[in-house]
Amino acid sequence: MKRFFVSAAVLLFSLPALAAGAGDVTIKHGDWSFAGPLGSFDKAAMQRGLQVYREVCSGCHGLRYIAFRNLADLGYNEDEIKAIAADYEVEDGPNDEGEMFMRKAVPADRFPSPYPNENAARAANNGAYPPDLSLLYKARPNGADYLYSLLTSYTDAPSDVKVPEGMYYNAAYAGHLIAMPQPLYGGDVSYADGADSSVDAIASDLVNFLAWTAEPGLEKRKRTGVAVMVFLILLSGLSYGAMRFIWADVKK
Amino acid sequence: MSENQFTNPVIKWIDHRLPVFTFMRHETHEYPTPKNLNYFWNFGSLAGIALVVMIVTGITLSMSYTAHVDYAFDSVERIMRDVNHGWLLRYIHMNGASFFFIVVFIHIFRGLYYGSYKAPRELLWILGVVILLLMMATAFMGYVLPWGQMSFWGATVITNLFSAIPLVGESIVSWLWGGFSVDNPTLNRFFSLHFLLPFVIVGVVVLHLFALHRFGSNNPLGIDTKGPQDTLPFHPYYTIKDFFGLSVFLTIFAAAVFFFPNFMGHPDNYIPANALQTPAHIVPEWYFLPFYAILRAVPDKLGGVLAMFGAIAVLFVLPWLDRSPVRSGRFRPVFKIFFWLLLADCVLLGYIGAKPPEGMYVIVGRLATIWYFVHFLIILPVLSVVETPRPLPQSISSPVFGGSGSMTGAAAAPKEKV
């Protein structure tokens, strides 16, 4: 009967291995504070990541599922959030005259997208569409390592690979030819807290931020999970004892 | 009918007019259950509880979900981010589907090993296969609702299967879609059916239980209960055992929900559906992979569809393919080997289903598919005739091969009359 469980377990745990298999890409493995059952977000890194998004990524990439109010998770207070929101303009309306108008964003607004629609985005980017970043961490296998690798794996193409006009060589990207130009070179942002601004450090900060945008409930989920597991393990123990007690008088 | 034995006057009054309490007492306190059931018999009640969990979380999710191609994906993200505990409801529902199938697959293989499909439980088994089919339809349509890339392309691939039907195939596909591609009408009807079918499953589950309580549970020895010495009242013996099993199940389930919620999902489904961009590999959810492998094993489209549905169809006629009067695999030395081969074959098919259809995977997939059908259509009928089963114990409570006088009876009747 044990083989029953073993076979089931083998099936279950071989699945991610089956799903992977993206070819000859090179993925670097980072050490993420939010990984593991007890993982939690690194707020300082996320704040730096937000800065990277605002100063580097947001030129082309949207963040449509994140409202400014959500930034409270990063440790900002209400005034700071209002100040960040006020840096952005969003379209509102129609007003009493029936006109759409632009106004300063408030905490309830979401990050405005850099382009009005996909066609405009493609027109501005040589036909490529810069994806929205909110969910990217969950939308790629092994999201954190993948995004980190993608941002830090721009290299010169090997001599046998011809890189077409408007494409770039990236060792972590499937097929190696990516339409996104190298976004980070090191020193792209100047951090207020004086943190390291090498390419690796900036990429890592950004991944911390993007893991949060994709899974803002992660900390709460894991903390709830620990309490639930403790309860259920105790319940299992108690119900096992109760079962033994009730079954004590049954002859085999 | 004699007067009911309840002492509480209110219960007595109600029960006299509407004997629900007598019914409950009869089906739990008095319902005699074999006393030798092992933990594999826990999975029936677990499946029932999984169904309830899915219905409760599903109804709650539907209150915040929008079945429209422009809003479905965003409404799911809104559930994940802004609805109170929406992330929990969705992760329970999402992983609950996988765990429901895990539990049901174990339940089915338990039935296969211990011959629970044999007389007089053929209809019980067939109703179970009906539930499996309904579950598959429900799960497939549910997977379409978040309207991610795998939702859209999975729906496109699976609905296109019906185009294999000669003459009317294309018309049937358009009719299923409500248009000329998977689009808003498709999403709307899938949502409607995904809401309806679980309640149909509840109905069939009631029939399944009705049929079960006619003869009671089979047991690991596969022999009929001979009297009160072989049985225990369901309550409290099996209610507490099921409760213990449930606690363990919930512990494992919670570990997945809280710590690995996306482990069994596909990352592509967090990309909004895009009709102009086909994913590199379109793979169904893991619980469909063995069937997907069978579908792709046949080089002909119609043949593949027939083989896939045939894989379920053989289960319907299984009680008449395996004619051996001995139920439990414990007393069938050859059958036992083939049972494990079948299980390995199904796992292998699942593995092949996740792989691209090229090279060795195609060949192995075809051999595994052939083996699946050979097992049911050739091995089982032949084994029923040629296999010599080991002697059966006389009863559940008597020692299996003890030195008592009952030994002769057991030896004289190796095949139990059913």
Quaternary structure state of the chains depicted: heterodimer
Biggest interface: A-B, 48 and 53 residues
**Rg over CA atoms of chain A:** 24 Å
What is the terminal-to-terminal distance of chain B?
31 Å
Largest beta sheet: strand ordering of chain A: 1-2
Shape of chain B: globular
Query: What is the number of helical segments of chain B per DSSP (H or I, 4+ residues)?
Result: 15
Structural class of chain B: mainly alpha
Mean pLDDT of chain A: 90
Largest sheet of chain B: 2 strands, antiparallel
Q: Based on DSSP secondary structure assignment, what is the total number of beta strands of chain B?
A: 2
Structural class of chain A: mainly alpha
Low-confidence residue ranges of chain A? 1-22
Largest sheet of chain A: 2 strands, antiparallel
The helix/strand series of chain B, from N terminus to C terminus, equals HHEHHHHHHHEHHHHHH
Q: What's the helical proportion of residues of chain B? A: 55-70%
DSSP E strands of chain A, number: 4
Residue stretches of chain B low in confidence (pLDDT < 50, at least 5 long) are 402-418
Output the helix-strand order of chain A. Answer: HHHHEEHHHEEHH
The best one-word shape of chain A is: globular
Could you characterize the architecture of this molecule?
The complex is a heterodimer of chains A (252) and B (418). Chain A is mainly alpha-helical. Chain A has helices at 2-13, 15-19, 43-55, 78-86, 118-124, 136-139, 143-152, 199-214, 218-247, and strands at residues 89-92, 101-104, 168-169, 177-178. In chain A, the strands form 2 sheets. Chain A has a two-stranded antiparallel sheet with strand order 1-2. In chain A, strands 3-4 form a two-stranded antiparallel ribbon. Chain B contains 15 helices and 2 strands. In chain B, α3 (43-62) runs antiparallel to α5 (86-113), α5 (86-113) packs antiparallel against α6 and α6 (122-144) packs antiparallel against α12. The model of chain B is unreliable at 402-418 (pLDDT under 50). The interface between A and B is large, with 48 and 53 residues.
